[in-house]
């Protein structure tokens, strides 16, 4: 594919290109084309009222104090997108991640202008989206205008090749270090939870993971496993540690054998170096990374996700704390249902038992936010106090098991409220701080 001649970023006049009512879709996370997004913010007075669609943000480009006049939407409030949400300026789109390409393709979510980042091609290779392969391709096919930042400092990735039918209208060459996601701090609670989770993952399983302290702790706890596969919406530096240690081999996958599958490089330089021109890593669109039909064909697929809070029957809120968005629907339901459809699969929701330095239980009688994942999809829940297996159980028994893995300081109150919720009969909770393992 031939790209148009590059223009100087300093000469890029967005005032004549972006209109006040437009929706501008920008690359998410490490795929943010910072030269373009910084120009978008700097020139915003010319198109006040334009809306920016964002995913997770790892930079401060769109900090609320610098973006007056711009509106925001997105599929969640992940990482620094939470700053925009807390300022009351992010209008979330409640959609499964796997559905986003179709919503853009059909014009349900508008995309007037798309800003993306490309790695230049070489040796006959086409340009690559590099860091993130997501809904931008579908949005770009629909957009009036597509602007690309060509950045030679980001990795070139297999599977990220720019499709021939995606038109690039304007190119700017701006080589700069990609945005990085700093490692999260792992504490004792995360380490304890990770030890429980690792015991649930058999050798040869195919795993999916997210971002943050909990996923990092779980990945570290899997270091003693063998022949794991990896098929996920994102890949991190800790994943690379497992690949280099020979833990993740993808050897037992019935397809994509020997290949790590991901949609986003959410990490730092170690990950970027690993990904660059590496045929053992393939980037894929959300319809593949999160596709139900694909996940159901992976034996022993284990979805590893987290939650803001969980109620006594297994309903999950992964979006809202105290009325403010801190997460999103994202790919959680995609991976939960994919794991349940997988032969020998398991959906694991791992979360600390408390929040706010132990003052608030995250296992609650009733959710304080929306139901991200319904109780009909409940499977396995893990806290630092143990494992609760809920699939197929009556609601009162579910409540008993969830209380058993709650922080001991909250169990008596949770049991009292459970008796009110289930007046027809509620099993006695085992009052102990020892792990209550109800795994299969």
Q: Mind explaining what this structure looks like?
A:
This protein is of the alpha/beta class and 440 residues long. 24% of the residues lie in helices and 19% in strands. The chain is built from 13 helices and 26 strands. Helix 6 links the parallel strand 9 (206-208) and strand 10. Helix 5 packs across helix 6 (213-221) and helix 12 packs antiparallel against helix 13 (408-421). The chain is globular and about 70 Å long.
What's the topology here?
Blueprint: E1 6-7, E2 23-26, H1 34-42, E3 51-54, E4 71-74, H2 81-86, E5 90-92, H3 100-105, E6 113-118, H4 136-142, E7 145-150, E8 170-173, H5 188-200, E9 206-208, H6 213-221, E10 229-230, E11 234-235, H7 237-244, E12 260-262, E13 264-265, H8 269-275, E14 281-283, H9 286-289, H10 292-295, E15 301-305, E16 309-311, E17 316-317, E18 320-321, E19 324-325, H11 332-341, E20 346-350, E21 354-355, E22 360-361, E23 363-364, E24 380-383, E25 386-389, H12 395-404, H13 408-421, E26 436-437
Parallel strand pairs: 1-8, 2-3, 2-6, 3-4, 4-5, 6-7, 7-8, 9-10, 9-15, 11-13, 12-14, 15-20, 16-23, 20-24, 25-26
Antiparallel strand pairs: 16-17, 18-19, 21-22, 24-25
């Amino acid at each position: 594919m031939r790209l148009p001649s590059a223009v100087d970023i300093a000469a890029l006049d967005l005032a004549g290109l972006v209109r006040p009512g437009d929706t501008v879709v920008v690359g998410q996370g490490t795929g943010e084309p910072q030269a373009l997004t910084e120009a978008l913010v700097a020139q915003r007075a010319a198109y006040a009222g334009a809306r920016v669609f964002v995913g997770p943000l790892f930079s401060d480009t769109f900090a609320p104090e610098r973006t007056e006049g711009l509106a925001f939407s997105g599929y969640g409030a992940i990482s620094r997108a939470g700053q925009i949400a807390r300022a009351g300026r992010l209008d979330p789109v409640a959609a499964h991640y796997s559905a986003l390409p179709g919503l853009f393709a059909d014009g349900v979510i508008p995309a007037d202008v798309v800003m993306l980042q490309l790695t230049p091609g070489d040796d006959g290779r086409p340009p690559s989206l590099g860091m993130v392969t997501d809904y931008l391709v579908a949005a770009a096919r629909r957009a009036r205008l597509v602007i690309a930042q060509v950045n030679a400092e980001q990795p070139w990735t297999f599977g990220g090749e720019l499709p021939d039918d995606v038109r690039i209208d304007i190119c700017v060459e701006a080589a700069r270090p990609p945005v990085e996601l700093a490692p999260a701090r792992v504490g004792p609670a995360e380490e304890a939870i990770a030890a429980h989770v690792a015991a649930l993952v058999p050798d040869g399983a195919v795993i999916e993971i997210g971002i943050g302290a909990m996923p990092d702790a779980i990945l570290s706890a899997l270091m003693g496993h063998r022949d794991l596969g990896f098929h996920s919406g994102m890949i991190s530096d800790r994943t690379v540690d497992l690949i280099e240690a020979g833990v993740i081999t993808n050897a037992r996958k019935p397809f994509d054998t020997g290949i790590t599958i991901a949609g986003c490089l959410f990490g730092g330089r170690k990950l970027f170096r690993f990904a660059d021109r590496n045929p053992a890593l393939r980037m894929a669109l959300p319809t593949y990374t999160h596709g139900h039909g694909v996940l159901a064909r992976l034996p022993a697929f284990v979805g590893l996700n987290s939650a803001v809070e969980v109620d006594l029957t297994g309903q999950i809120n992964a979006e809202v704390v105290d009325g403010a968005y801190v997460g999103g629907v994202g790919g959680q339901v995609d991976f939960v249902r994919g794991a349940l459809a997988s032969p020998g699969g398991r959906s694991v929701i791992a979360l600390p038992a408390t929040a706010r330095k132990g003052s608030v239980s995250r296992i609650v009688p009733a959710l304080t936010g929306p139901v991200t994942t319904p109780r009909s999809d409940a499977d396995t829940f893990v806290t630092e106090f143990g494992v609760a297996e809920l699939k197929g159980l009556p609601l009162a028994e579910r409540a008993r098991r969830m209380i058993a893995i709650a922080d001991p300081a909250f169990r008596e109150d949770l049991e009292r409220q459970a008796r009110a919720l289930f007046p027809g009969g509620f099993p006695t909770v085992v009052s102990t701080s020892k792990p209550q393992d109800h795994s299969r």
